[in-house]
Amino acid sequence: MADPASPICCPTVAAIRAVAAPWREAGERLALVPTMGALHEGHLSLVRQARAQADRVVVSIFVNPAQFAPNEDFSSYPRQLQRDLDLLETVGVDAVFTPDAAVMYPAGFATTISLQGPAAAGLEDASRPIFFNGVATVVAKLLIQVAPDLAIFGEKDFQQLAVIKQLVLDLDLPVLVQGGPTMREADGLAMSSRNVYLSETERALAHLLFTSMQKIKAGMAGAGTVASLIEAAVAELEQAGFRIDYLVLRDAVTLGQWQGQSAGRLLVAAWLGKTRLIDNLAIDGRGLPGHSKE
Asked: Taking Cα atoms as reference points, which of 255, 211, 259 lies closest to residue 237?
């Protein structure tokens, strides 16, 4: 094994393939953790999950321009490569794939992936219409370039995880896709690279997204309907200063309408000042006493 404290930095497709080839020839299991950098404990937990299941772990760091609309934060998205590399030295990463845009989208690049299914669920796709085509294209490229046996994505981006699972299934890509649990700050706020955008006042309020979902889940064990619980949560969040894109309960697998007793997922996206936050919470429909979805 290579020294886990000294990951090999690979800036090109040829470099990552050359590094991975002897591992594959030796029959070693390879895991990939795709990221856009600005790493935090949430990312590191995914690396640890990969490390527990694979002989070799590759982390990719690439801020993907194809998933940002012109009015979004591509230019200001936090980039801190050396800090990221220093963090990855501590968690047993074998290689870091660090392509730039010219490597991923060379001159003449003309192919993208078109999506339906969970990518057209009226959630992130409604607010960010180009987002999932950009995500699917870059993830497909990463899976082809690195050719991992296992790829791990955070459950915080729950719709994205569903899209990637569908992508791998539809394109017959020989990789197992796993979700990693959302890591949270002490007050419940989901860890995110964009949390650095929050002002001190906004940061003190941001945990209310998770608190609101917890209140809905608790209310579902009683007599309240989903619709009334969500309506009350939206009103409370708006009063606190949030602007809600969506707060919904969907089927946990298809992201279609929740059918009352199936496993569900509460999903929320909201603006707090200039920062857009997303989160989700699992709902075990089997534990609800004849609960109405209306």
From this structure: 211
The confidence score (pLDDT) of residue 19 equals 98
Which residues are designated catalytic? 43
Q: Tell the CATH topology of 193-287.
A: Pantoate--beta-alanine Ligase; Chain: A,domain 2 (3.30.1300)
Residue with tokens 């994205």: 160
State mean pLDDT over 155-183: 97
Q: What percent of the chain has pLDDT over 90?
A: 87
Domain boundaries, the chain: 8-180, 193-287
Closest CA to 56 of 83, 22, 30: 30
**What is the per-residue DSSP string for 207-242?**
THHHHHHHHHHHHHTTT--HHHHHHHHHHHHHHHTE
What are the tokens at 139? 């993830």
Q: Which CATH homologous superfamily contains domain 8-180?
A: HUPs (3.40.50.620)
Distance CA 22, CA 173 (A): 21
Q: pLDDT per residue over 119-162, tens digit each? A: 999 999 999 999 999 999 999 999 999 999 999 999 999 999 99
* Residue 120: both structure tokens together: 């057209």
Entry pTM: 0.92
